[in-house]
Amino acid sequence: KAGVTQTPRYLIKTRGQQVTLSCSPISGHRSVSWYQQTPGQGLQFLFEYFSETQRNKGNFPGRFSGRQFSNSRSEMNVSTLELGDSALYLCASSLAETNTGELFFGEGSRLTVL
Amino acid sequence: QKEVEQNSGPLSVPEGAIASLNCTYSDRVSQSFFWYRQYSGKSPELIMSIYSNGDKEDGRFTAQLNKASQYVSLLIRDSQPSDSATYLCAVSRGIKAAGNKLTFGGGTRVLVKP
Questions:
Q1: Which residue, of A24, A30, B29, B79, has the fewest CB within 10 Å?
Q2: pLDDT digits 0-9 by tens, A27-64
Q3: Nearest CA in chain A to B35
Q4: Which residues of A touch B100 (CB under 8 A)?
Q5: What is the pLDDT of residue B100?
């Protein structure tokens, strides 16, 4: 069974640009969450989607957005990139609708903003 | 004060010894608690979950929960060099509205020396 797939794995952008990251969850998983991981702040929750609906949103500015498609694949977008957006962006999928805490993480997309 | 606090370490443990990791959380309504392991350069993976006060054992791992003290711990018995990783404590409100949102601590880095 294929795991969570994230693309691209690495990318370099400049300030002011925008970026779109993609996540394909494990087959059958309808919940997709996004996290930002940095050395200083650790793993921080961005948002979660379930059946194409955003259920929860973390404390990030509106420049961070996401969506989920009918096949459960998800994308997140960051507009007007800032240096501080450099991070590892992790996508996680879950089979359960809620509260198992059993998240399966992808390998991440490492974004560098210059 | 961070919502979930962990000692960043590194926690240096001789091979075969017990590694003891601690985690405190501030949100009293938290109901579900998890330990994830993250190897360097890899994504987190779930190793333990605990929902009720007391101990829960799984192989060489034991999770302990004390909701009154807002404290969660993880014991790793017979530590092996392969246990060298960062261990992340995560909590969830455990209600349907929270979905699969997890709040992570900063992680404790564990080094097991042969």
A1: B29
A2: 999 999 999 999 989 999 999 999 899 988 999 999 99
A3: A101
A4: 31, 33, 48, 50, 92, 94, 96, 98-101, 103
A5: 80
Which chain A residues are closer than 8 Å to B50 by Cβ?
none
pLDDT tens sequence across A88-104:
999 999 987 666 678 99
Closest chain A residue to B98, measured at CA: A56
Question: Is residue A56 classed exposed, middle or buried when 0-12, 13-18 and 19+ CB atoms within 10 A define those classes?
Answer: middle
Across the interface, whether the CB atoms of B100 and A90 are under 8 A apart is answered no
Measured distance CA(B42)–CA(A63) in Å, rounded: 27
- Provide, as residue numbers in chain B, all residues whose Cβ is less than 8 Å from the Cβ of A26: none
Give the gyration radius of chain B's Cα atoms.
14
Whether residue A1 is predicted with pLDDT greater than 70 in this model: the reply is no
Cβ contact, residue pair A99, B98, below 8 Å? yes
A74 close contact with B: CB closer than 8 A: no
CB of A21 within 8 A of CB of A74? no
Which amino acid belongs to residue A90? L
Give φ, ψ of A54 to 5 degrees. Answer: -75, 120
Paired tokens of A94: 């879950």
